[in-house]
Each structure stands twice: as C-alpha cells, then as structure tokens.
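Problem: given the chain below (302 residues), write out its structure.
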Amino acid sequence: MWFKNLSIFRLTEDFTLSPAELEQKLEQMAFRPCGNHEEFTFGWTAPLGNTSAQLVHSANGFMMLCGKKEEKVLPAAVINEMLQEKILEAEDQQGRKLSKKERTAIKDELIFELLPKAFSFSRKTYAYIDPKGSWLVVDAASAKKAEDLLSNLRKCLGSLPAVPPNTVEKPVVTMTQWLINHQTPADITIEDECELRSPEEEGGIIRCKRHDLALPEIKNHLDTGKEAIKLAISWDDRLSFIIDEHLAIKRLRFLDLIQDQVADIETHDEAEQFDVDFSIMSLELANFLPRLMELFGGENKT
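Solution.
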C-alpha cells in the first residue's frame, strides 16, 4: 500500500486512542451499501480488504484506516431528457406553464423513482495517523476528498483537532527562489516540471512538463513576476513528487533506495506484503514530513 498523494494535516492535540479504541469508534460508521433511495453512503472498511475484517491496521505505532464511499450514477443527460418529457406532459394536461417550484418537485420525484434502478460505484480513500509525530496523512489528490474523510472521522471521534500545516515561509516564495537562483538545499533536486502563475487576480498560468527548468525562458517568466505554484522535486534520492503552494504532494514515488528495502523482505501472502509496505512507507514519511516543514522555514505555531 503505497500512497500516491499526500494531503497532510497537523494534529494540534495528542492523539491518545489505541488501535482497538479507534476501531471501536469507527465501527459506528462501518461501511454499508446504498439503500434503494440513497444517493450515496460513506463508511469505514478494512484497509486490508477481504483478507482482514479489522477497520484499523497498525504497525510501528502508525494506524491505517480506509474510508469507502458508494454513489449512485444518474447521468444528467438521462434525467434532463426524462424531466422535459414529464414537464411537457404536465403542462399539456394543465394547459399552463409550470412554476420553477413545480419543475423542481417533478425532478425530485423523478430522481427518487430512478435511484433504485441506478448503477452504483465505490471508491476508497486511505489515511493513516501518526500519533508520535502528530500527523494525519490522507492519500487524496484533492483537498475536498481529504476534507470529506477528515469530516467523517470527526463524526466518529467527536472531535479531531487537525489543521493543514502552516510554514514560516510561503512555499510559493521558496520554490520561486529555488528556480531563480538555481540553488536548493543539498537534499533537494529540481526535476523537469513546474507551474508558474502571475500573482495578480486572474493571472496567467504557464505549465512546463519534461522541460529543463534552468533554461532562460523559465527565468524570463520569473523575471516578469510569475511565481512557482507547483514544482517537481526529489528528496535525498528517496522520494520524487510534485509539491504545490498548499504543501499538497501529488504523484509521489518511492525511489529505488526504498523499493530495495521492500525487495529484501520475504513475504508469503498479501497481508504480509501490505504490512511491510505500510511499515516502510510510514517510517519513511515520518522522517520526511519534518524535513518538508524545515524546507519552508519550519512550522508557524502561531
């Protein structure tokens, strides 16, 4: 289980629940499929899938959990076509135009009628809690998806003081200076992708991919005031990723130094492999996240 994206939250109070206590709280919202007239459901499921029923998988003090959301699929084109037919039929019968409120009521009835026949799909979102380091890390490419998981976790726990990390230096300023000066900390290497944006409202955006970011045209954009809002970098030959202005990490890859550690450990089944992957990944990120904060001047505790 290797995370591909990191939405990072700082726990502002000690997380004191044991894996068993956390599991007991998650059981209140164990996943169940959508009912006939439900548009979606969310619940907690076993991170290990069918190989284990446990809602919390723990290793080395880290606790993995998995949220599962099932949604009904009602194509907008189908709804609109059927809705127009029903509205025209009602208007013909009554000999008048329907009000907006009446049209909305017909649409609600139509959706209620179609939901039991709709196809459904589900997706999982993984996260883990690092009580010692005071982190919650969600494998989510969008902030909304991460916040959805956090919101549902709070429902189970009653409260969970967790906020996005705030650094002393703005990531945009630091990443822009790296590109301007062609200088980075010794453990950071700039790769071949970035996104530059003009600071003014509705400012233009330049996206560069598979491009030498040391070339003059990149500096020309920076000289006109554009700032780096996304940058592809690697850390200490261990991790490669794109980081954005909010410290969200996308397209995370664990490089050969880490993959070699995994290959050296013999496993006999899927559960053992999951445990090895999670153990190595979480320990690696426990070392990386404090360093990530340092790169941008440390955390702003105020």
